[in-house]
Amino acid sequence: MISVILTHYNKGQLLNRTIESLQPQDENLHEIIVVDDCSTDPEWSKNSKYLIETYPKIKIIQNADNKGPAVRLNQGAFSATGNYLFFMDADDVLAPNRLNMFLAEMQKQNADLCYAEKVKIHDLNEIQKHTIATWQSSTTPLNYVLENNIMQMCVMCTRDLFIKSKGCNENIFIQDESLALNLSKYSKKIISSDLHSVFVILDETETKSIRGENRLSRHLEQQHHDMFFTIDDFIRDYPDIAEQNKKLLIKKAISTYWKSIRHTPQRKFTDFIIYLTSRLHPIQTWNKHRMKLTTYFNQLDHVRKINSRESN
């Protein structure tokens, strides 16, 4: 049985659309857990009551303070009672029959972790055009996730895997990167498909560079901050990971630093040199410059910081 976990903050009627796309009447769908992160929307109280009355499988966890999606996703997942957990953003749309498809393939291949494609579209008719899945699998999930840069919120895992991995890094505001890393670190077998499954519905006036007003994805500075510290924490928490995986993580962390600083007044030519040398000698570059990089991200002003961090 599947538990779906949705973290919610001021999504309005988009949440209702998401819930309906989950096909709440499906017999394999055990529960839909909505974890509200202290929404300020005056209509939320009325809508939450409507959801509970309309959908018997809905469980709403209401919070009196705002902690961010990483904390709230863990809160929902640890309260879930299904054997399988599915995560997606609370303003996106799931294509028909995907939960059953993921469940059947995971059971068929004896996998504990599954990812499929999350894509942006303008035309709702696009959802119906994607029906055939081709699957890849790996028994080295962490390497697979890093090699394929997997972190989108279209993921199903066993409840046992989530508990073992401890879910998201709660020292980070945005959950995507830490969820993928922690699950894949403890997974025994991952399967993934390029089948379009979760859809980000954009307005016609939006593009890939101009995103919805209530999306964390618009806040690139927050993204860069959280991605860097997710990797930094992971490397420190798991010093025994394979050297190849450590190199991939370091390259991504330093690339994130370069993306963050390159259009700012702080940028220096030496920052570009750090980025270039990390391509060839990632571990040596990391050991030499990590303190400089952590100091830079610690000093960012316009990001949500869950806990204070040391630079050394």
Overall description:
This protein is an alpha/beta fold and 312 residues long. The chain has two domains: 2-201, Spore Coat Polysaccharide Biosynthesis Protein SpsA, Chain A; 219-298, no CATH class. It contains eleven helices and nine strands. The protein has helices at 13-21, 44-54, 69-79, 98-109, 141-147, 159-165, 176-186, 220-237, 243-261, 269-280, 282-298; strands at 2-8, 29-36, 58-62, 84-87, 93-94, 113-121, 135-138, 155-158, 190-201. Strands 1, 2, 3, 4, 5, 6, 7, 8 and 9 form a nine-stranded mixed β-sheet that branches. Helix 8 runs antiparallel to helix 9. The protein is globular, with a radius of gyration of 20 Å. Residues 3-155 form the Glycosyltransferase 2-like domain. InterPro entries: Glyco_trans_2-like, Nucleotide-diphossugar_trans. It holds the Pfam family Glycos_transf_2. This is Glycosyltransferase family 2 protein.
| Residue fraction in strands | 15-25%
Main beta sheet strand tally, sense and closure = 9 strands, mixed
Q: How many helical elements?
A: 11
How do the helices and strands follow one another from N- to C-terminus?
Answer: EHEHEHEEHEEHEHHEHHHH
Shape: globular
Task: Look at the structure and name the CATH superfamily of the largest domain.
Answer: Spore Coat Polysaccharide Biosynthesis Protein SpsA, Chain A
CATH class of the largest domain: Alpha Beta
- The CATH topology of the largest domain corresponds to Spore Coat Polysaccharide Biosynthesis Protein SpsA, Chain A
Residues in helices, as a percent range:
40-55%
Number of domains: 2
Q: Measured on Cα atoms, how large is the radius of gyration?
A: 20 Å
Mean pLDDT: 91
Distance between the termini: 45 Å
Please identify the structural class as seen in this structure.
alpha/beta
How many β strands by DSSP?
A: 9
Low-confidence stretches: 206-217
Architecture (CATH level 2) name of the largest domain = Alpha-Beta Complex
Domain Glycosyltransferase 2-like: 3-155
Organism: Acinetobacter towneri
Pfam families: Glycos_transf_2
Protein name: Glycosyltransferase family 2 protein
